[in-house]
Amino acid sequence: xxxxxxxxxxxxxxxxxxxxxxxxxxxxxxxxxxxxxxxxxxxxxxxxxxxxxxxxxxxxxxxxxxxxxxxxxxxxxxxxxxxxxxxxxxxxxxxxxxxxxxxxxxxxxxxxxx
Length: 114
What we know:
Layout lengths: L5 H13 L7 H36 E2 L4 E2 H30 L4 H10 L1
Antiparallel strand pairs: 1-2
């Protein structure tokens, strides 16, 4: 979030303090006060925008009410996939061991089944 208004506010406050309480300068004081109000509005707007961005980020990266991060969820899914791939490999290896030396007829059937 930008924070470049502090110096401007300080200068406006200093100008308001130094401005004489003369009726002829009342319009100048009015404009200084209006500028100060506008700067404060800009700060509030920036703050609300920053909060909205933070909330959007939280909603984007948090899944449901569990509070589990999307990245954590994806990592968990990846580990589950890896475990299932291991199981598939183990089943394929057991199948190869059970078949033993393949015969020509058995070889054709295994090719057809995949």
